[in-house]
Amino acid sequence: MSRKQARSQAFQTLFQLEMKNSDLTIEEAISFIKDDYPDLDFDFIQWLVSGVKDYEPVLDDKISPHLNGWTIPRLLKSDRIILRMATFELLHSETPPKVIINEAVELTKQFSDDDHHKFVNGVLSNIN
């Protein structure tokens, strides 16, 4: 399966981990998708989810200056997670920035409000 599908599952795993009453570990959250999607790149998902969780304060510091009057806590949970995922990938992978930003925009179209993909695109373009 593609990195696009792996990113989608990483997003959903991070969203699940951010639920207020979630006491799941990263490994437990990822294990829920292994039976349904056995062909996914779980090494990539583990790397992305762990990286976002481990570097969350650093990622937020990198994102915050580009929010134009918004703060990290005020963002929709979905937008916050997508921005963190994409920023982590921009900083820690060899994937071309255009691919990372495009995938983040597509995730935003799928999991966020109607025009938020424009906001996510603008923020990430300034980070890059």
UniProtKB/TrEMBL annotation:
Database matches in InterPro entries: NusB-like_sf, NusB_fam, NusB_RsmB_TIM44
NusB/RsmB/TIM44 domain residues: 5-127
GO molecular function terms listed in the Swiss-Prot or TrEMBL record: RNA binding
Cellular component annotations (GO), alphabetically ordered:
cytosol
* Keyword list, A-Z: RNA-binding, Transcription, Transcription antitermination, Transcription regulation
Any GO BP annotation: transcription antitermination
- Family membership, please give it: Belongs to the NusB family.
Its function, per the record, reads: Involved in transcription antitermination. Required for transcription of ribosomal RNA (rRNA) genes. Binds specifically to the boxA antiterminator sequence of the ribosomal RNA (rrn) operons.
Which NCBIfam families does this chain map to? nusB
Q: Please state what the protein is called.
A: Transcription antitermination protein NusB
